[in-house]
């Protein structure tokens, strides 16, 4: 009997995963789960009104869609965007590796606070045009296309926030999104050298620079770029349970695929995580899934240990941590960064650790996890502490048009800290050689 159950479980998991990749069906299923959850938690007429409100909101950082359209409408937004993105991806790739997995989970996370179908689609068109112009395969550009929607508030703010007739504002907003989707690819490739791959959110840094330029241009034309930021504390046990179940499901799927064991999991601790690190390719799907599940549970635990709440933005942070746990992050390189953020926030009063902004700094601050992996525990703590301070001031430069503000901050921290750590490391190495 037990053997038969195990065979059925293995067959079920085989629909979603194999040893070297995650299949698109996983995301199709997750999208349906989110849509059904949304339909079950909010009346349909209210969902329709709420979803429309989400589509026409400025969506600048931090716009919590729970506050804008309601919980149910937000989950409909997340599920519908995930369905479309998965459809577009599976037309080009049959299996999802670590980088693409991180991109999909990140977009899903930010669909809780800033991304929707209207303001993200133009970036895909820009990517398509860049593919034709540059001769690059579209499949190679899809990861950056997904991450490029970091600047989705640009499309929404131009379309719905400038007091222009919709027949003018909509074409302008879409056109700007298409242009950004075109230029972000070569710019991101160049900026990777700025932080040497120690900031996992490279597109976040790139989007911050582009957002700064767009903000400056809008101000020249006297177009408003700032709007009321909405957040809403969520204490629903159903939402908490949903994301605990998601994390547990990922861990248990990997555990079963790994022969009901944690064998080889600790190998992940030896990997620094510097861009580009694909855990799916290097360690296989089972280890990656277990890492994603563990990281999800750790992220949720941190939120509740410091007294935080799962509002839309914080959920986005948790999902991004889960996604990048296939692409550079693991407990051994991420924990020191979180600890550094926490200590800076408590010791120097750089925000209450339980506030939304502070939680985002801790969760997204793990973009600097490769610094821990390359230079050690205390270097990771220093990176986290610096990030907690710097991220407080970077959003003003792009007026919240870049949703990946922590990636923008992380780029500066890495660019500043890594050369200093290299000097210390080299000095230590030279001293050991002369002994």
Key phrases:
435 residues, mainly alpha, 1% strand, globular
Description of the molecule:
The chain is mainly α and 435 residues long. It contains 20 helices and 2 strands. It has helices at 2-16, 24-41, 44-55, 65-69, 71-90, 98-110, 117-134, 138-148, 152-160, 166-195, 202-220, 237-257, 279-283, 285-305, 312-324, 331-347, 356-364, 369-375, 377-398, 405-434; strands spanning 17-18, 21-22. The chain has a two-stranded antiparallel sheet with strand order 1-2. A hairpin with a 2-residue loop joins strand 1 (17-18) and strand 2. Helix 14 runs antiparallel to helix 15 (312-324).
Order of helices and strands: HEEHHHHHHHHHHHHHHHHHHH
User: Ranges with pLDDT <50 over ≥5 residues?
Assistant: none
| Main sheet summary | 2 strands, antiparallel
Helix content: over 70%
Beta-strand percent range: under 5%
In DSSP terms (H or I, runs of 4 or more residues), the helix count works out at 20
Structural class by sheet pairing and helices: mainly alpha
Q: Give the overall shape.
A: globular
Mean of residue pLDDT values? 90
Distance between the termini: 64 Å
Write out the strand line-up for the largest beta sheet, numbering strands in chain order: 1-2
Q: Give the C-alpha Rg.
A: 21 Å
**Quick one: how many beta strands?**
2
